[in-house]
Amino acid sequence: ADAEGQVIVLQVERASPAARLLVRGDILLEINGQKINDTADVEKAMRSGDGRTLYLVKNSAGRVQKIVVR
Predict the structure, then answer these.
(1) Beta carbons within 10 angstroms of residue 69's beta carbon
(2) Which 3 state secondary structure label does DSSP give 60?
(3) In 3-state terms, what secondary structure has residue 55?
(4) Are strands 34-35 and 54-60 parallel, antiparallel or unpaired?
(5) Radius of gyration of the chain (CA)
(6) 19: which residues sit within 8 A by CB, 6+ positions away?
(7) pLDDT, tens digit, for every residue of 26-64?
(8) Are 35 and 41 in contact (CB under 8 A)?
């Protein structure tokens, strides 16, 4: 969901590679080195990768974390 220049995770599919890495309420800051301000940025950044690995920077409960989703 977009919230004033932020993309907030609302749900993560249980069977997805991100299931153990993202939780409801996480704020996506970067994907594959691209700043994320809205859902259009998410779609664009996801297309920019190799299709197998995503490099994410998220804010989770006030802590900025870098994660790799494979």
Answers:
(1) 17
(2) strand
(3) strand
(4) unpaired
(5) 11
(6) 12, 13
(7) 999 999 999 999 999 999 988 887 778 999 999 999 999
(8) yes
13: exposed, middle or buried (Cβ count in 10 Å: 0-12, 13-18, 19+): exposed
Q: Which of the given ranges, 4-8, 12-16, 62-66, has the highest pLDDT on average? A: 62-66
Q: Which residues neighbour 48 within 8 Å (Cβ) at sequence distance 6 or greater?
A: 32, 34
Strands (DSSP E) along 7-62, which ranges? Answer: 7-8, 27-31, 34-35, 54-60
Binning pLDDT at 50, 70 and 90, where does residue 21 land? very high
How would you classify the pairing of strands 54-60 and 7-8? unpaired
> So what's the pLDDT on residue 50?
76
